[in-house]
Structure formats: C-alpha cells, structure tokens
Amino acid sequence: TDPALIRNFCIIAHIDHGKSTLADRMLQLTGVVEQRQMRAQYLDRMDIERERGITIKSQAVRLPWAPTQGGDQGGGAGATHILNMIDTPGHVDFTYEVSRSLAACEGCILLVDAAQGIEAQTLANLYLALENDLTIIPVLNKIDLPAAQPEKYAAELAHIIGCDPSDVLKVSAKTGEGVAELLNEVVRLVPAPVGVKDAPARAMIFDSVYDAYRGVVTYVKVVDGTLGKRERIKMMSTGAAHELLEIGTNSPEMTPADGLSVGEVGYLITGVKDVRQSKVGDTITQHSNGATEALGGYKDPKPMVFSGLYPLDGSDYPELREALDKLQLNDAALVYEPETSAALGFGFRVGFLGLLHLEVIRERLEREFGLDLIATAPNVIYRVDMEDGSEHTVTNPSEFPVGKISQVHEPVVRATILAPSEFIGAIMELCQNRRGVMLGMDYLSEDRVEIRYTLPLAEVVFDFFDQLKSKTRGYASLDYEPTGEQASDLVKVDILLHGDKVDAFSAITHKDKAYAYGVRLVAKLRELIPRQNFEVPIQAAIGSRVIARETVRAIRKDVLAKCYGGDISRKRKLLEKQKEGKKRMKMVGSVEVPQEAFIAVLSSD
Ligand code: GDP
Ligand code: MG
C-alpha cells in the first residue's frame, strides 16, 4: 500500500466511555465485519476483559475507508484509504504498553463520555500521546444520553488540548451518529506515516500475544523498508534470529500477506513459544544486512508490586506452578519464584506491574485454572542499606534484614487525581494520611480539579483507590507513574503467636503507622483464633520490642467431659466433628489456626 493512503490511529478513552462500542461501529461501517456476524465488543476477546470491561492486550485492525466528503488528502477524493486502528490497554499498570502502541500511530482519537468528562487515566494517556507527537482528534461520545452535557465537556476538552470547542466532534457509538464523519476526519487530519522505503527493514513490536495453536503472534508497525514472508529476521535487543513463518494483517481476522512495508501495521508469526522472546518495544530487522540502529524506546518490564500466592489446598502446588508457567507465555511482565511460608506452606512470590495486573492474574488463576488461592498483602520493593555497607533488596517483608540498618528506600509515584472540586478536602486528607506531598492543583473547569501528589507506592497499592472512590462517591479517578524512590523511616512489624513469628503477617510500614498496624492485626487475630488447650499470647513486635498484645484464653473443660455416661455414638460423633474441623486448621508453631483466619486477616478492609 502507498503510505500516503495509510492512517494509523488509536483510541484513548477511560473504561466505559465507549471505546469498544465505537470500534464495533467502525468495523460495521467499513464493512469488515458483516452485520450478521456482529456481536458486541467484537475485539475484546478475553473473557475476563469482557466481564470487567477492560482491555488488557492491544490489537490492531485494518479498516478500508473511502472518505465520503471533503477528503482530498493522499490519493484524492474518494480514494480508499487504509485505516489501522490500534487498540491500547487503558490501565495505569500497562503504561509502557500504552506508550508503545501510541508510538505505532500518527494520530489518536481522544474519546470522552459526554455525560462524565475526562478522567485521570485518559489525561495521562493524552499526555503520552502528545509526547509521541500524535495528532489528537477530540471526540465526545454518548451524545444520545439525556444526561449528556456536550457543550460543557467540549469546553473542558478544548481547554485541556488548546483547541476550539467547535473542533470537538460529537458522536454516539451506540446509534452510530457522527461515526462516518469521524472516520472522514481521521483521513483528513491524521498524517500519513513516513519512512524510508529502500532502507533495511525496521519494525517496532507494539504487542505480543501467545496463542495456543500458533505460538506467539507479534504485532508490528513497519517504520522503514519491507518485511517479506519467509524472511529471516532478528530481534535487535537480543540479536536472536527467527524465520518469518507468516506475516499479514488483521481485518479483523488474521489474513496472510506477502509482506508489510513502510507505514503498514500487521502481525507476524515466527514459531517462538514465549512472549519474552518477542518483547513489546523491541525492533525487528532482517537477519543479514539489517538495520544497525534500533527504533528508540525498548524497556524491560519491571515488577513493582509483589505478593505471595499459595494454594488453599497444599496438594495443588504443582498445578499452581503449571498455571503460572502458562500465563507467563503471554505475559512478559509476570515474574515468580518458589517461596515457603511457615504459615501457608509452599507457594510463589509473584511480581506484578501493579495492582490491576495482580488482580487480573489472580482471577485468571482461579477462574481459568480452577485454583483456590491465598494471597499475602501486596508489598513493594525496598532497598535497605546496612551500616556495614551492605545493601539488600527486599521483595518479601519477612526477609527484611536484621541488624544495624542505616537507611531504607521505598519507591514513590506521582499521582494525578481528577475529581469534582467539592471533594478537594476529602482527597487532600486521604493523601496526607498516606504520606503524600502535594505537587499542585489546577481547575479543569469551574467545578472539576486536577490534584497532583507524590505518594509512596506502598501507600497506593494498599486500598488507596477504594478509599478514594468511597470518599468521592465514585467520582474521582486516579493515575500514577513511578518517579523513583525516597528514603523513609520504615520498620518491620512481626506478628507472633505463642512466641512464634507468623511470616505471612509480617509487614513493612512507616514508623508512625507500625503501632496502629500491630494493634489492628492482633485484635483481629484474637477474634479469629479459637481457644486452645493452653493460653496463646498474640503479639506484635518491632525487632524484640512488643508493641501490642492480646491473649486467647485456654479452654477450661475437655469437650468430651460433656458426654457423661456411656453414649458411645455421641462421643464418636463429637470426635469426628473435631477431626473434620482440624482439617482446615494450619499449625503455626504449636498453635492451630483456622485457614479462614489467614484469609480474613490478609484481605484488606
Ligand atoms: P469501553 O470500556 O470504553 O470499551 O466502553 P464500552 O464500549 O464497553 O461501553 C461502555 C458502556 O457504555 C456500554 O454499556 C455501552 O453500551 C455504553 N455506550 C457506549 N457508547 C454509547 C453511546 O454512544 N451511547 C450510549 N447511550 N451508551 C453507550
Ligand atoms: Mg472496552
């Protein structure tokens, strides 16, 4: 295809603002999906995506479109253009993937719900798009809704982007109103891709998806040159060579082609079995006489949040390992290693990009692999400097070093919160409680603000978003990006049962919060642990200093004492009942703890 006839664009939108529905309309209007095959949210393939309404993996679809009016760009009025719609994952955890899919585009539709206005995540992605020099087409969706306020939000968008309110398009993805005009505007406004036709090929990987039958399917944008089928290619970050078994485009099903050239977007298959061999952000070139300089931007995904995952039933451990192995084939960011906990048995310490990533993986393990899991409270990575000059990296609180510590560093993020201005006080209070430092505040319109804070990541990963939502009646939206680390006054709090440390409950907290954490956990455990034959002290301690204590009193009478006389069958029943109850108990040192206690304590509240 002549690059002048190509338009590569993406849609940036907050969850539920109608991206999938708009994509559906575009598929229909351009005729790539016939009416009778149409089902809602055609492109959202993964079940979990459909149910939670989030897009985890980006995809690209090729749409032929002949502008119906005023489109005399490229090949002249009415010429059929190729629009490549590149779907971007919307969530904070996948910022790097988002920025790579943006880099494959020249333009972007900024889609905002006309009854809601722009949200923090959308704003963050808009800034990413601007950094990538994309042409922005602002669009308000859902104008059919009675609650829509297109004029108000057009003014808001115009203010943010610096355009005229009349430049903001108004559509209804539901009824289809305005969608053809939007496609015309994509042709008119989005620049055609530019690249060097006769140079060695350079193609950027913006997504990599594992398919059980075909192996890894890699999505690329060809920037320079041409990639042909059966060619030998090279991954520039590692130098690894592969043969191109298939190359083609999605319209929307995979359609093989002879090759892809300048500006084209499509997929390729090399037979690799693991997405880590075909990483997002990497550059592909020919194996011999290939390009020498990679396209910028490659970065290894780095886990930010860790949690211990344990099977509820210890005998499921091998299945858990297999399931993690399988998920990793499709997720270059998922890392894990075996871990043993005195309280929870055999499991894995798993690293995630963020909280949503954690939730998605956990849910997939439970749903797709039928595993029942206990997850320990999520924690971040700490860097600990010792007075003797040694340095430790801590991904599990129970491994926090003992001895003379000179400094502890924790990761920090820059958080952006958008909310109606009536909630400013509540938001500031929450951020202050989470050790936040305010960076600034701006009014987006007369009644909506953008508030910026520096916050320790550890304070964000633990129920921050839930709190924010509940304090703003669901109106606030949050985005955050890692900005480095800071030295903080952090300590490890241990929980001891009858003198034995319960590793799963160890936590690293700020010194000022250690006491509250200790008191809360100790009180909770006292309620959950049944009486034993002996008195069980429950303590919270920093090092050897006890900061909170409760006691579970001993059982005074033997249960069997109640069964006076010779009622053997009743006695047996009682004994059996007791045995059954025991099965769900875990021994921590000499204390029996019901499994429910772990689950109850580890689930945040
Ligand atoms: P996404 O999360 O951005 O992909 O949003 P969806 O496309 O899944 O849409 C979220 C919800 O909004 C769904 O219930 C859609 O039916 C609805 N929706 C999307 N576009 C419109 C629209 O133009 N008008 C109305 N009334 N509802 C819409
Ligand atoms: Mg969607």
TrEMBL record:
InterPro entries: EF-4, EFG_III/V, EFG_V-like, EFTu-like_2, G_TR_CS, LepA_C_sf, LepA_CTD, LepA_IV. PROSITE patterns: G_TR_1 (PS00301), G_TR_2 (PS51722). The keyword Nucleotide-binding applies. GO terms for molecular function: GTP binding; GTPase activity; ribosome binding; translation elongation factor activity. It is found in: Cell membrane. Its EC number is 3.6.5.n1. Its main location: membrane. It comes from the Bacteria. It catalyses: GTP + H2O = GDP + phosphate + H(+). It holds the Pfam family GTP_EFTU. GTP binds at D16, H17, G18, K19, S20, T21, N141, K142, I143, D144. It is a peripheral membrane protein. GO terms for biological process: positive regulation of translation. GO terms for cellular component: plasma membrane. Signal peptide: none annotated. The keyword Metal-binding does not apply. Keywords: Cell membrane, GTP-binding, Hydrolase, Membrane, Nucleotide-binding, Protein biosynthesis. Residues 4-194 form the Tr-type G domain. Required for accurate and efficient protein synthesis under certain stress conditions. May act as a fidelity factor of the translation reaction, by catalyzing a one-codon backward translocation of tRNAs on improperly translocated ribosomes. Back-translocation proceeds from a post-translocation (POST) complex to a pre-translocation (PRE) complex, thus giving elongation factor G a second chance to translocate the tRNAs correctly. Binds to ribosomes in a GTP-dependent manner. Belongs to the TRAFAC class translation factor GTPase superfamily. Classic translation factor GTPase family. LepA subfamily. This is Elongation factor 4. It comes from Streptomyces sparsogenes DSM 40356. The lineage of its organism: Bacteria, Bacillati, Actinomycetota, Actinomycetes, Kitasatosporales. The gene is lepA.
